[in-house]
Amino acid sequence: MTCTTTIRTPLGPMLASSDGESLTGLWFVGQKHFPPQAAEWPAGPDLPVFTTLRTWLSGYFAGENPEIPLRLDPRGTEFQKTVWTLLQRIPYGSLSTYGAIAGQVDPHAASTLARAVGAAVGHNPISLLIPCHRVIGADGNLTGYAGGLDKKKALLRLECAPAP
Q1: Which of 10, 45, 61, 161 has a beta carbon 3.0–4.6 Å from 156's, enabling a disulfide?
Q2: Does residue 72 carry a pLDDT above 80?
């Protein structure tokens, strides 16, 4: 059963979901691709995963690069999970491109996979901990972010990432 909690952050409230053992979701409230079924999920007790997440978020928004002490279990297709695993390899304060990630998925089909990678990045269900905000366009410009470009810019500033 999925349980949720709402967590206040400097960039607005976020909804976290858990199966009781793992973090299964973290979204800015109202963001694009916000799970429509979230309204049906019960607010959970203060699960240990939520307590740990609050501590991590506090450190992260204080400008730290804390280790992720949570088991992440994003729900999606095998392709999406592959992309989300690759996102977790983008170092704090660094950037990557959709094309570069597509090349890691399949070097022989990178140019045809870039859009599919973009769709998987956009549907990332665990914001921040799976750092989709670190992905930019091939031309170096900021591209869409489900939480909004204002939040993406703020997160990159927080991490002192190179300005695109």
Answers
A1: 161
A2: yes
